[in-house]
Amino acid sequence: MRIAVFNGPNLNLLGVREPEIYGRTTLAEIEARLEEVGAELGVTLLFSQFNDEGRMLDAVHNCRGVVTGALVNAGAWTHTSLALRDAFAAVSLPYVEVHLSNIYAREPERRHSWLAPGAIAIVAGFGADGYELALRGLVRALSRAEPSTP
Ligand code: DQA
User: Fold this and answer.
1) Which of 47, 60, 88, 113 shows the smallest number of beta carbons within 10 Å?
2) Beta bridge partners of residue 4, listed in sequence order
3) Predicted confidence (pLDDT) per residue in 55-92, tens digit
4) Which atom of ligand 1 is nearest to the CA of 76?
5) How would DSSP label each residue in 45-100?
6) CA gyration radius for the chain?
7) What is the spatial distance between Cα 57 and Cα 54, in angstroms, rounded to a whole number?
């Protein structure tokens, strides 16, 4: 099983970006931990990070028939982009939404997610550990649903 791990804008700066909110773990460290968990679960992970929304939409489209599901931290596009949810729907790609912070306990403008209605589940507020929890949950959900997909 192949799983895409999408990170949106400014998440390339994890580790130095507002560490009091997002922690000191870098994106490379998160991805390295996910690689370990992926090996344990027997899934292949495809990592990408985008500061350009159009490129992220193209990357989601390119998942069609290639990956079984996705983890998505869309950063601030979570709160602005219906197009991103439409892209996942367009290629029938199931996803779990991930946030380091608990967006529902933050400023009002962060308390709405355009991705949430299309997500299998949401993991928010566990910091970097949330990615691992989301991956375990996603693989379990996909294994139940479709035992033998790409
Ligand atoms: C975030 C929360 C968003 O509101 C913010 O714009 C981010 C990171 C999180 O992981 O907590 O970039 O998605």
Assistant:
1) 47
2) 46, 70
3) 999 999 999 999 999 999 999 999 999 999 999 999 99
4) 6
5) EEEEE-SSHHHHHHHHHTTTTT-SEEEEE-GGGGGT-HHHHHHHHHTT--EEEEES
6) 14
7) 5
Active-site annotation holder among 22, 61, 112, 131 = 22
**Ligand 1 pocket check: which of 22, 96, 102 to mutate, most ligand atoms within 8 Å of Cβ?**
22
Which atom of ligand 1 lies closest to the CA of 102?
11
Beta bridge partners, 88, equal none
Q: What is the pLDDT of residue 117?
A: 98
Give the largest CA-CA distance in the chain. 42
Strands 2-7 and 44-49: parallel
Q: Residue 22 catalytic?
A: yes
Tens digit of each residue's pLDDT (9 = 90 or more) over 38-59: 999 999 999 999 999 999 999 9
Say what the pTM is. 0.96
Which structure tokens are listed for 138?
Answer: 């996603």
Q: Are strands 44-49 and 121-124 parallel, antiparallel or unpaired?
A: unpaired
